[in-house]
Amino acid sequence: MSGKRFATFLHVRLLGPISILVVAGSIVLCLGRVQAQDSEAELLTLDHAITLALRNNHEIRIAQLAVEKSDDEISAAKTLRLPSVHAYSMVSGNLATNDLKFQNPAHDLFPGLGPFFSLSVERKPTAVIGASVITPLSQQYRIGLLIKLKRLSHDVAQAKLRQQQNETIAQVKKAYYAVQQTQSALISVQAALKSYRELDKITGDYVVQHVALKADQLTVQTRLARAQYEELELSSRLATQKEQLNSLLGRDIGVPFEVAATPEMASFETELTEARKVALEKR
């Protein structure tokens, strides 16, 4: 260990309580900035979160694409019932001039013809065009079974889509309530931390005035440090839970937001029969 590092180590050891307070002040300053940034974030309600998840969740989008694919397969299977038209054409012709020169063995018998004569064939293209219409009469039953199979696959894809939507809604609710719980715990710890800071200040004054013992101040500082650790841990947990909720909503995990506070339980009086009726109607 070098002399510079050793001196720094002694400085931290000698100024233990002061360094703890400095670190605590830095943590509080950082948390204050984070809270200032969070105060500018949007207020995300549970209904709005569910709407975003149903629209942008990646797993739901994959299930929707599977349903659309099954629709296309049904349409493609229906086209097999229709007649198919086939057209074809063929064009042929000589590419070179055909000039044939023959020797005339009887040039003495046929006047006007020399000892040699030639034959030429004109280059005229020949085209053949045809068409055929084929109707799958014997395959209609098999095609009908194929269409039924594709429709069953479509129903299965729709059922998987509904299942994925229900699972995503449950996951969003769970993540949303977890954020609410952690946020409430963080607010409680921050309130306790404020009280511990005031108590530490008062206890320090009492120690200077020889009214309280040094052990009392150390106890308060220990509780203050524990509260600071809990605040840091809850802040990290809250950031992780918000990233998980953003991932379920199908958006960037760094989007800042604030969840709505948990509403107070409203007390009401009703009869059991009427309550069952309302529950069955709105379930």
Descriptive notes:
With 283 residues, this protein is of the alpha+beta class. The protein is 65% helix and 13% strand. It has seven helices and six strands, in the order H-H-E-H-H-E-E-E-E-H-H-E-H. The protein has helices spanning 3-14, 16-39, 46-56, 58-78, 140-208, 214-248, 272-282; strands at 42-44, 84-92, 98-103, 116-121, 126-134, 257-259. It has a two-stranded parallel ribbon with strand order 1-6. It has a two-stranded antiparallel ribbon with strand order 2-5. Helix 3 packs across helix 5 (140-208), helix 4 runs antiparallel to helix 5 (140-208) and helix 5 (140-208) runs antiparallel to helix 6. The longest helix is centred in the middle third of the chain and has 69 residues, at 140-208. Mean pLDDT is 80; it is low at 1-39.
Question: Beta-strand level of the residues, as a percent range?
Answer: 5-15%
Strand order of the largest sheet: 1-6
- List low-confidence stretches: 1-39
The shape, in one word, is elongated
Radius of gyration: 44 Å
Helices and strands, in order, run as: HHEHHEEEEHHEH
Tally of strands: 6
Structural class: alpha+beta
Share in helix: 55-70%
Rounded to the nearest angstrom, the distance between the terminal CA atoms is 70 Å
How many distinct helices? 7
* Average pLDDT number: 80
The largest pleated sheet is described as: 2 strands, parallel
